[in-house]
Amino acid sequence: MTVMGRLFGRGEHESPGDHAHSKAGAANALDLEDIQGFIVRGYRMPMVRHFLLTVGDAANARRLLGRLIGGDESDVPQITTAEDWHVGFAPGPGDNPSDAPRRKPDYCLNVGLTWPGLVALEVKDRVPTLSFKSFGAFIAGAAERAKLVGDTGASAPEHWVGQFGKGGDHVLLTLHALSPEAMTSYSARLAAAFSEGGAFREIWRQDGMALMEIQDGKPVPTSKVHFGYTDGISMTTIRGGPERYPPDHQQPCEPWLFVLQDAAENYFVPEPKELGLNGSFACFKMIMTDVVGFENFLQSNKDKIDPELLAAKLCGRWRNGIPLMLSPDTNSPAGGIPLEQLNNYEYVNADGSGDPKGLRCPVGAHMRRINPRGQPVTGQAQPGGSNNTHRLIRRGMPYGPIFDPKQPYDGIERGLLGYFINSNLENQYEFVLGEWVNKSEFAGAVRLPPQSKDPMIGTQDPASSLFVIPQAQGAPPIKISGFGTFITTRAAAYCFLPSITAIKFISKLG
Amino acid sequence: MSQNHFTLRFPLKAPADAKALSEQLPPLMPAIFQAQDAIGSIHYSRFTVLSDKTLLFLGDFDGEFGELMTQLAKRAGAVFDAIFAHVVDPPPTPIADHADTFVEWTAEHLLSAVNLYTAYPSVTVKDIKALASAADVSGAGELHPFLVILPMKSKLAFIEVQLILRARGHGTTKDLDKVGTPHFAQFIPLEDNQIGFFTVYDGSFDKYIADFTKNIGEIFDLLFKFTKGAPPSPCRKYLQEFIDFAASANRAPIGFYQAYPGLSVQDIHALIADRKAESTSA
C-alpha cells in the first residue's frame, strides 16, 4: 500500500473487525463512542473546512451543540466519534445489507471550545463545580501563551487573522469531507444551523486540501506538504487505540496522554467529570509556510551541500519520505524500503549505539526535535527510552494550491492548518515548541550548538541562526547559518475537545 | 578516584551572626571560587544560611576529604577566618597557619548523608574539563542548586525517614538516573528534625517538573507522609502545589561554584560516551 493509500483510503490497519475489543480490557480502555474521532483517528479525507464561531444566543448555541450529537442526521450533520466507520452510518452501495456497513462516511465533523467559548456558552456561570485545575494554559489561551512557543514578531497574536486571540474565538467546528459536493452541502446545512435563533455568528472560515498530483491522467490527493515533503509517515500510537500503525521502536503512548482519563499521571480531569472525562485539548493553528524562502535557502547553500541532501538533513527525511536513519546517502536506496518499515528506526539504542552524534540524522533536525525517540534528553535520560511524555498527535492539512517552481512569486498564501492534540498543553504542545523546537539545552551543548533551533519551524534570528550537520570520520561539520524563519503563525486557539457526554451536558444546561 | 560529598555545619553564636554572614559572604565568593579552581577537585559548592544558628557549606568533590580541607585552609583561609568570627568554638585562626586543626574541626562538623547520588561517578573534575576542552565544548546550560529543607513531624518521623532513605538508596539512584537532570544529590539529616535535599540540576524546575515528578515523585511522596506542612500527594499530579512547596522550602544559596559552568548531565554523558567510542575504534 502506498503512503497515499494509507492516508486517503481504507487501509489494512482499519478493517471494521479490528475494533470489537476496544471497549473491553484495561480499566483505562478508550470509550470510543464518547471520544471525538479526530483525537484518536486520522480520517484520511482530502479536504477540510474550519469554521470559527462566536456565540450569539447562548441558550440556542448550547441547544445546537446538543443537536450535533442528537443522532438525527436529517436534522444537522453529526459530530464524528472515534467508533469505526460502520457504526452509525447507513449501508453504502458496495455493502451487503446483511453485513455491518463498510461505507466510509462522506464527512466528519468535530468541535473545539476555547475558554472564552465556555464562558460565552455560560458553562462557567451555570456549573459552580467547574474546574480546569491542571490546565492553566487553556484558561490563559493561545495569545497569552504565544511567546512560550515562539509565536513572536510576525507570528505574534496582534497579527493573527480574524478574531483569533481577541476573545471572540469561541468555537471551532472542523468539517472534513470526501468530495467538494459533500463539503458544499454539509457547509450549507451547518451555516443555516449556526444562524438559527442567532445561536452563533460565523466569523472566519478557512479551507484546507490535500495537495493533488496527476496520476494516470487523474488528480489524486497526496500526503505532501508545501515544502515538498511527504508527511504523515510517523504516527503517534496509542496503547489500546483504534488505529494500528507500523512499528516505530517506541512504546505505545498511554491513552491518558491524549484522552482525559483518571488514570493520568500528571493532571486532574476537569470537573465535573461528565464534562472532563474522554475529552482532550488541542492547539488549533494556521501556519503560513514561506516556500519560496525555503527553496531559495536550499539553493543558496549548494556550494556547501547538495540542496536535496540539505532538505533531508533539515527534516530528518528525504522529501520523498525515506528517513535518513534508514538511508543516509540516497533517497532511492537499492531495493527500496517497504512502507511499513519507513518509521521503524531508532536514533539511540538502549546500549548507546545508533546515531548518538547525528551523523545520519542531525540531532537538531526537525523530526529529531519534535520526537527525539531514544535520544537521551534532559528530563528523560535513558538511551533507547521512548520519550513519550511530551508526544503530540498532529491532524493537519495544507491550504493554498501546490507550489509551482515555475511561478514562485505567485502571491498566493500557502501553509498548514490543523490541530496539535494532547491532554496537557503545558507539558506536551508548549513543552515541545518551547523546549525542543526553540531551544537547544535539552540535548546538551555537546550535541546541539547553544543558539540553534529547529531549522524548519523554529523562530529564527538570521544573525544567530545555525544548523550543524555533523560529518563522519572526524571531518569538520557543515555549518549552515544566516537563515530566517520559514513559517508564520497566522492563527492559534487553545481548544477543549469535549466528549459526547460533555456536549450533552452542556446542551442540557438550560 | 571516588567522588564524595561534604556538608559542613558552622554553629553560629547568635542570630545577628547569621544576618552578618548573609551580608559578608557574597563579596568573598570570588576568592573562594578562585581557590576551588586552583584546587581542581570540587565539582560544585555553595553556602547557605540554614537558620539563625547554623551556616552550611556543601560541595561535591573528588578524592579525600582531609586533603580537600587542607587545600581550602591554605588557599581560601581568609574566607573561613571571616566565617569563624561568627562561630561558636572555632578552631584557631588564621586557619591557613593551622590547617591541621581546621581539618579536625571540619571532620567533627561534617554531616552524614543518608543517600548520595552522582550522575557520572566515573569521572573527575579534571577528566570533565579535559574532555570538554578536547571536544571544544563550552557549557551553555542553565544549572541551579536546590537546597530544600523538609521539617519532619516528629523525632520518630525523622528517624523513620532516614531508615526509608537508606533502604531505598539504590531505587533512588535509578530514579535520579532516569530523569537525567540532577548532577549530584544528597538527603542529609539536619538540626531540629529536618531533612535536607541538596542537589544541582539542569534546566528550569518548573518546565521539567512533570519529568522530575514522574521519575522522582515517589520518593517525595514517601517523605511527605512524614513532613510538616507537606503538599498533597501524589506530587506528580499536584504539580503546582509541589512547585510552590519546593519554592518555599528552598534556601537561597550564597555563591554557587561550578567547576565546568553550564555543562549539563547530557553533555557530560555525551563526552564520556564519545571518549569510549573513540577508544574502542582506535
Describe the structure.
The complex is a heterodimer of chains A (510) and B (282). Helices cover 19% and strands 17% of the residues of chain A. Chain A has helices at 3-8, 37-40, 58-67, 115-120, 123-126, 136-140, 180-195, 273-276, 291-300, 307-315, 366-370, 426-437, 500-507, and strands at residues 47-55, 107-113, 171-177, 200-209, 212-215, 218-221, 280-289, 393-399, 415-422, 466-469, 478-481, 487-497. In chain A, the strands form 4 sheets. Chain A has a 4-stranded antiparallel beta sheet with strand order 2-3-1-4. Chain A has a 4-stranded antiparallel beta sheet with strand order 8-9-7-12. Chain A has a two-stranded antiparallel sheet with strand order 5-6. In chain A, helix 3 packs antiparallel against helix 13 (500-507). Residues 1-27 of chain A have low confidence and may be disordered. Chain B has helices at 15-39, 65-75, 77-84, 99-108, 125-134, 155-167, 169-179, 209-224, 239-249, 265-281, and strands at residues 3-11, 42-51, 54-62, 115-118, 143-151, 182-190, 194-202, 254-258. Helix content of chain B is 47%, strand content 23%. In chain B, the strands form 2 sheets. Chain B has a 4-stranded antiparallel beta sheet with strand order 1-3-2-8, with helices on one face. The A-B interface holds A 134, 136, 264-268, 352, 356-357, 376-382, 389, 424, 427, 431, 434-435, 440-447, 450 and B 135, 137-142, 177-181, 202-203, 207-208, 210-214, 236-237, 239-240, 262-267, 269-271, 273-274.
